[in-house]
Amino acid sequence: MKKAICILASLMAALAANTASAEEIQKQAQNEELRARLPQEILDDGKMIAVNNGSFPPYEIITGTEMTGATKDISTAIGELLGITINHASVAGLPALLSGVNSGRYQFAMGPVGDYPDRQKANDFIDWAREYVVFAVEKGNPSGISSLDTACGKRIAVMAGGSAEKVIKEQSEKCVAAGNPAVEVQSFTDQPSSILAVRSKRSDAFFSSQAPLTYFVQQAKGQLELAGVGQANGFKDIYQGAVVKKDSPLGGVLHDAFKILIDNGTYGQIMKKWGLENNMIDAPGINQGQ
C-alpha cells in the first residue's frame, strides 16, 4: 500500500510539474449584457463555485486545493467576461458532482463532462469540446486489447459513474452472452488512481477519454501506450461540456460566453496551449449529445 501511495504521489507531482507552457492568455473585458443576465444572488455574491470530480488532465489538474489546466484557464476568462470570480471545489465521483449541481450546492460544473441523453433529463450541458474513448495499456499491450470486443476476460479500469463504465458493463454482458469470460470492471473515483492501477499491473487497461489518456501516457515515460484509437468503442459522437441544473438561466449565459471566447480566439488559444487541438469545436451547443 505504501508503494502504491508513493507512486500516486509521484504521478500527481509529475502532472503538476509538466503542465503546459506559461503562455499568456488574453484578459477579457467585462461584458455588461452577459453580466446583467446572471441571477441576482450570483451578482450579490460576486462569485460562483464550479464543482469538479478530481483530476481530468489536461482539462483539470488538481494538486492539493489548487487547480490548473484548460478548464481553469477557460473559467478565468469567463469570470472576467461576467465580472465575477469563479472558484473551484472537488467531490469524489461524477454522481456527487451532478447531485451537487442539482441540489444548488454548486452553481455549475465547467467540466467538460460527457453530454448524454439520460443525463439531459436533470441537467443541461453547454458543450464546448469533442471527445473519443480509448484504452490506456501497458507498453507493448501484453493483454492484446485493441477494441471493445477484445475486453472479454480482461481487468478494465473506468471512472465510477461515467459513460465508459456503462459501456464496459454492457460489453461484459455481451461477452457472457457469447460464451466468453466477463469483463472484470474496476471502478475508480479519479483518473490518477485508474492510471496507477494499469502502471502497477492491477488493471489490464484504463478505458476513458482520449484527451486525458494521451496526457497520462505522455507523463508515463514509455510505460504506457494508447489502444483502440480511431474506433467507436461503443460510443456515438461524444460532446462534453459545462453542466447546470435543468433550465437554469446560467446555461444560456455560459453558452454565449463560450461563443465570445471562440469568436475572439481565446478558446483556441487555451485549447492549443494544453494540446487539445483535436478536441476543439467550431461553436458551443446545448444538449447535443445523442
Query: What structural class should be given to the helix and strand makeup?
Result: alpha/beta
Q: List the secondary-structure elements in sequence, H or E.
A: HHHEEEHEHEEEEHEHEHEEHHE
Uncertain residue segments: 1-22
Q: What is the gyration radius calculated from CA atoms?
A: 19 Å
Approximate helicity band = 25-40%
Main sheet summary: 5 strands, mixed
Strands side by side in the biggest sheet: 9-8-10-7-11
Overall pLDDT level:
91
Question: Overview of this structure, please?
Answer:
Helix content is 37%, strand content 24%. It starts with a helix and ends with a strand. By secondary structure, the chain is an alpha/beta fold. The chain has ten helices and 13 strands. The chain is globular. The N terminus is likely disordered. Helix 6 links the parallel strand 8 and strand 9. Strands 9-8-10-7-11 form a five-stranded mixed beta sheet, sandwiched between helices. A four-stranded antiparallel beta sheet has the order 5-12-6-13. The chain has a two-stranded parallel ribbon with strand order 1-4.
